[in-house]
Design goal:
The protein is mostly helical and about 190 residues long. Helix content is about 50%, strand content about 5%. It contains six helices and two strands. It has helices at about 30-50, 55-60, 70-90, 95-105, 120-140, 160-189, and strands at about 150, 160. The protein has a two-stranded antiparallel ribbon with strand order 1-2. α1 runs antiparallel to α5 (about 120-140). It is flat and about 50 Å long. The chain starts with about 30 loop residues before the first helix and ends with a helix. The model has no long low-confidence stretch (mean pLDDT about 90). This is DinB family protein. Pfam families: DinB_2. It comes from Paenibacillus urinalis. InterPro entries: DinB-like (IPR024775), DinB/YfiT-like (IPR034660).
């Protein structure tokens, strides 16, 4: 029995044509695993910045038709606060009171993300960028043999440093998807 062979046609760029090349940008001086995990965090942050660039105040404060959802502004502040907590967790330190006063708590007294009103997207991204820089500095000092070290986590639990850095990247991707969804919903409403 003969089987027909299908040839796959692939367009191969000519020499000189620009091709996109995807890879993680590992900062010089970071160890292998910490560098790779941190590059995932940074990649997600850069992607998030592109996603919110140019949004209006109305767009970032939008809380859904019923006004019962988190806004993009609230999610951006939440990401900043969570990442700030990891900056200090990875060093086994408490978040300084000044930071909590400036950015607010992780959740409010009702267990919800704290309300954020009339703060520009550029201000929120600038705050988040500063925290990303702090996170990078912490990761720069993590050695390969420290990745399994345990740091304090929520509810009296602990997490490895490796898991903590991965979690920051994963958490960011989760809220990135929410932000994309909110933008689409805003356009529909």
């Amino acid at each position: 029995m003969k089987t027909a062979m299908k040839l796959l046609s692939i367009n191969i760029p000519e020499k000189g044509d620009r091709m996109k090349q995807y890879d993680f940008d590992i900062k010089p001086g970071m160890t292998g695993t910490a560098g790779l995990l941190h590059s995932m965090v940074r990649y997600n942050f850069e992607r998030l910045k592109r996603q919110v660039k140019g949004l209006t105040q109305e767009e970032i404060d939008y809380k859904g038709k019923e006004r019962n959802q988190n806004s993009i502004a609230e999610l951006l502040r939440h990401l900043s606060v969570v990442d700030l907590n990891w900056v200090y967790r990875l060093q086994c330190k408490e978040v300084p009171k000044e930071w909590i006063e400036k950015l607010g708590p992780m959740i409010d007294e009702n267990g919800k993300l704290p309300a954020v009103h009339r703060i520009s997207v550029s201000t929120l991204i600038q705050e988040y960028e500063g925290i990303q820089d702090m996170f990078e500095n912490v990761c720069m000092n993590i050695k390969e043999n420290q990745l399994e070290d345990q740091v304090p986590f929520e509810n009296g639990n602990t997490a490895s440093i490796r898991w903590g850095i991965w979690h920051v990247a994963d958490h960011s991707r989760h809220h990135y998807a929410q932000i994309v969804s909110i933008k689409k919903q805003f356009l529909r409403d």
